Amino acid sequence: MEKFATAQRQPSRLIEATAFSLRPFQEGDATSLWEAIQQTRPQLQRWSGLGDSDRSIEQVQHRIARWRLDFACRKRLQYGLIDERGAVLGGASLEHIDWHTGSFQVGYWLSAAALGKGHATEAARRLTLEAFDTLAAKRVAIWTDAENVRSVHIATRLGFKLEQRLERERMNALGEWQDTLVFVRLDTLGL
Predict the structure, then answer these.
(1) Domains observed in the chain
(2) How many Å apart are CA 16 and CA 123, to the nearest integer?
(3) Residue-wise pLDDT tens digits, 131-186
């Protein structure tokens, strides 16, 4: 197998979208991020582990510090969706990165106030393009809870194909079993 030869490519530190920018979280984002988590906690706990342990500004500051370190090490590329006022609308990431094979996973979440405006679709589209065009990905996946209709629509709207269903793949923060759908793209045609 040919070794993934572009591991030295650097991720973008700023990705412009229509109504927001994607950029790594900064220390000064802690209060806005905490507020976004607070208003969205029930959804975050149902669909992911985010929000379960983020019960104080200090915990959110620690999370941002960890994300910044992960970004610098190219382990997880966590971006904030930041509006023109500097407020956090949500987050999106390239994660579960395998630099050897060029495999990436796109993750995203939005604050309750940002839902229904196409921001998650735009963020997922921009990060998918970042993975393929800047980081020379060979495979990009979106993993989502089978019952998360909004996320399933995002994956299919962006041309990701359902690869498999993982039954009882994980528990959410509420202790409920989740079936996970794995959607995959191998190219950017049509994005």
Answers:
(1) 19-185 (3.40.630.30)
(2) 10
(3) 999 999 999 999 999 999 999 999 999 999 999 999 999 887 778 888 999 999 99
